[in-house]
Amino acid sequence: MPLIVVALLLLAGVSEAVGRILPLAVRRPGMSRTLVASFMLAGGLVEGAVFALWPLTAWTLAELVLSSPPPGEELVWTPGLVAPLMLAAVLAFPLLGPFLHLLLFVGAGAGLVSPLAAATGLGWWGAAGCVAVAGAGLGVAVEAVRRLVVRISAAEARVSVA
Amino acid sequence: MNGFLLWVCAIGPALLAEALLARYEVLAYGAGWRAPTTALPEGVPYARGAAPDRPPGAYLVYLDGIGKRRFRDSRDGGLLVKALIAGAPELRVLGQVLPYSPLADPLAERPVWAWLRRRIGLLLFLHNVMQTFVAADHRYRPLYNRAVGSQIATQLRLAGYQPDSGIPVVLLSYSGGAQVAGGAVDELHTQLRSPLLLITLGGFHNGANDLSRAEQLHQLTSASDRIERVGTWIFPQRWRLFRGSAWNRAIRAGKITVHRLDPATHVGPRSYISPTARLPDGRSHLDRTADTVIALIRAHHNATVPTDDLLP
To answer: Which DSSP string corresponds to chain B?
Structure first.
């Protein structure tokens, strides 16, 4: 993976973490700036890794759908395709954030569809299905992990208070 | 086309940046990075109207619209406050609360914003609009409500309000101030345990705040008020369909009373607060609005205290 794509994925991951973590951070007293920044960096690494897996997962799904190996090269992020994800912090926008975030991801996903369709010969709708299922699956998986972490940390906080 | 490009390339990113930065104050408040301001500048009283040496008929807190950017009254809000003080000398009136600043930090006195005010004054209104949206967002709303509710409670205490005194507190809100007024109900009840009366004037709010601890909400509105109507369209909690929303529960509980101030508009020369627009009976819109607010407060007061305790 080219270094520029890795850098963009990291920035996109941090952007996503900023959008997700700041709304949570405002609810918790005693959050120092350093702690918030470290949460965002750690979250950014995780989110960046999840973004990196999106085309790979879509490609794997396409392989499962096809009876024979795809004729083209494996689907990967290019700088142009991954760049819009750097606006993922828009999630934190008051009121409209979740909707704008969804639109952004639909747009980024649409960018992956054409290269996947061309590389696999699945057709546009088939490729779109693979990209959508991969994106939704990764989103659900990472959300489950997030909730688990929140639940565990809340339980630990209760134990320490008791 | 050029106008559209200007919007997309210049105003669009400015809007985006402003919306993302708008949350900084509530973040700083929640994390405890900065304490809210409590002292007022020299010369700004904690309350006006009724003298502090005897209990007033009610404490009235005026929560202004998006033009509010300093402790002193805005131009239009100041007219209404003056009319209320003149018409109801039994009230102690507070106009210094900053509904769009969880840290009670006047926008006009922040260096960057003071610079912007001289060049792009519109951005100050935009900032306050965004604060209204922050206050309406379910992720930030509880904290925002606590911040401004505490600000109001603090100013009421500084103005002489005694918790558990039973003296009514009236939150009179104009436009976006209604979002904050509804949000402050729980915190005020918790801190002061005061009887609460809400009066909204062209109220713009999302209907998500629990009003069960308020005694009544009087909604002053007009068929010509387009901005208030936008609020009823864009916030699902205001739709009748969502029967479980706080707003619809308050309606079913009989807590909302609508009063029409036709043909007043939300802003402009025919607004609710216009001293020049005249009604057929010769009163100005400002006079009618002030008269209505005073009558509602006195009716509420008469209904809640024994007759021999009434103030003149």
So the answer is: -HHHHHIIIIIHHHHHHHHHHTTHHHHHHHHTSSPPP-PPPTT--S-EES-TTS--SEEEEEE--TT--SSSPPHHHHHHHHHHHHH-TTEEEE----TT-TT---GGGSHHHHHHHHH-THHHHHHHHHHHHHHHSTTTHHHHHHHHHHHHHHHHHHTTPPTTS---EEEEEETTHHHHHHHHHHHHHHHH---EEEEEES----S-S--TTSSEEEEEE-TT-HHHHHHHHH-GGGSTT-TTSHHHHHHHTT-EEEEE-TT-BSSSTTBTT-SS-B-TTS-BHHHHHHHHHHHHHHHHHHHHS-GGG---
pLDDT of residue B306: 45
- Identify the pLDDT of residue B137: 92
B107 interfaces chain A, CB cutoff of 8 Å: no
Q: Which of A20-29, A49-58, A125-134, B292-301 has the lowest mean pLDDT?
A: A20-29
CB nearest to A92's CB, from B20, B29, B33? B20
Q: Is the pLDDT of residue A35 over 60?
A: yes
Overall average pLDDT of the B22-49 stretch: 86
Fold of the B58-310 domain: Rossmann fold (3.40.50)
Which residues on A lie below 8 Å from B136 (Cβ)? 94-95
Closest residue of chain A to B30, computed from CA coordinates: A26
Domain count, chain A: 1
Q: Write out pLDDT tens, residues B43-101.
A: 899 999 998 888 899 999 999 999 898 898 888 889 999 999 999 999 999 999 999 99
- B147 to chain A, any CB pair closer than 8 A? The answer is no
* Cβ-defined contact of A26 to B143 (cutoff 8 Å): yes
Check A25 against B30: CB less than 8 A apart: yes
Compare CB distances from A25 to B16, B27, B137 and report the shortest one's residue: B27
How far A124 CA lies from chain B's nearest CA (Å)?
Answer: 30
At B210-233, the pLDDT tens digits run 999 999 999 999 999 999 999 999
A-B contacts (CB, under 8 Å) = 57
Residues of chain B found within 8 Å of residue A23, distances taken between Cβ atoms: 23, 139-140
Residues in A touching B22 (Cβ below 8 Å): 94
- Which residue of A lies nearest to B133 if distances are taken between CA atoms? A94
| Residue A123 vs residue B286, higher pLDDT | B286
Per-residue pLDDT of A47-83, as tens digits, reads: 999 999 999 999 999 999 887 777 778 899 999 999 9
In the predicted structure, residue B308 carries a pLDDT above the cut 70: no
Q: Touching check for B134 and chain A: CB below 8 Å?
A: yes
ipTM: 0.75
Residue B215 touches partner A, C-beta closer than 8 Å: no
